[in-house]
Specification:
This protein is mainly β and 305 residues long. Helix content is 0%, strand content 46%. It has 3 domains: 59 residues, no CATH class; 55 residues; 146 residues, Sandwich (Jelly Rolls). It has no helices and 28 strands.
């Protein structure tokens, strides 16, 4: 066996060329090598271009076929999580592999950058971020800008709803926050985003909850007289009878005819809320006497965008 095999000219071969158990102590080099059949070989180093199915390769490696063309990488590994093989990209000047595409026995495809797995596609088509983190059903991929990897996030990271279960008094000509939203109430999301307290009727923004929110309320006042009205508004950082900073428009409903009617008012808004902000939902009436809320007409809801 020669210590060096050199290919100085184009080799064209329409049959199979197989070098299975051969050992080369030198190099296998060539300016251009072209095979239209199959090639099996242990280790080969070419200083020129390699063409398979073509004798005029335009790049370092060109595989050309008249129909479907493929390259097969085989492995005897059987463990589902074992890597069969892949492609690596190296910065030769510093000797660092900068990116890798690998395949697992179970059919998963791994994409690595700077030595870390950044993206995975499993055999079912599920997408994993930074490994096998597939998120949970209903989540979406959130961009974190050009300096951080994306993460999974709920479509609405926080949402809440409540209907008033117990009436309470509203002093005439006084904005009063609604309370007692225990009927059908729920809140979904981590307390670090926000906390909805149905008893006090407050929404408190958590340390990680700053952002834009959609908020909506409906208020009803009982026994409103003809010509009088009920009004509602959403405010932040006020108290039980002070709106604080108004963040919604005013909603108003009139009783235009008969006495002692239930009058309802509604409003909604989109607002940027900061950590520690406290949101309350207020109703108002201009009756000459105090009146009660109408529980089955009072509700609040909202979610973080």
């Amino acid at each position: 066996m020669a210590s060096k095999l050199r290919v100085d000219e184009i080799i064209s071969n329409n049959s199979n060329v197989s070098i299975g158990t051969a050992t080369f102590t030198g190099d296998v080099t060539g300016s251009t090598a072209s095979f239209t059949g199959s090639v099996g070989i242990g280790t080969a180093t070419f200083t020129g271009s390699v063409g398979i199915g073509t004798d005029t390769p335009s790049q370092e490696l060109v595989v050309h076929g008249n129909t479907f063309t493929s390259v097969l990488i085989k492995s005897d590994r059987t463990s589902p999580n074992s890597q069969i093989g892949g492609f690596s990209f190296m910065n030769q000047a510093v000797g660092i592999i900068t990116a890798t595409i690998n395949a697992l026995v179970d059919g998963s495809l791994l994409f690595k950058a700077a030595g870390e797995e950044r993206l995975r596609i499993d055999s079912a088509g599920a997408i994993g971020l930074s490994g096998s983190n597939y998120g949970t059903a209903g989540q979406v991929i959130k961009s974190n800008g050009n300096s951080a990897a994306p993460t999974w996030q709920n479509l609405h990271s926080f949402m809440f709803y409540g209907e008033q279960d117990t009436e309470h008094n509203i002093v005439t000509n006084t904005y009063t926050r609604l309370i007692n939203f225990g009927t059908n109430d729920f809140s979904i999301g981590d307390a670090s985003i926000a906390v909805f307290d149905e008893s006090s009727g407050t929404l408190t923004i958590g340390a990680d909850g700053a952002g834009y929110y959609y908020l909506e309320m409906h208020g009803g006042i009982d026994d409103v007289q003809a010509g009088d009205y009920a009004q509602c508004v959403i405010g932040k950082n006020g108290d039980s009878t002070s709106v604080g900073t108004r963040i919604s428009t005013y909603g108003r409903g009139w009783n235009s005819t008969s006495a002692n009617q239930v009058v309802t008012a509604s409003t909604s808004c989109m607002a940027f809320l900061s950590a520690t902000d406290v949101i309350r939902f207020y109703v108002y009436h201009n009756e000459s006497t105090d009146e009660k809320t109408e529980p089955n007409r009072c509700s609040v809801m909202g979610y973080k965008l």
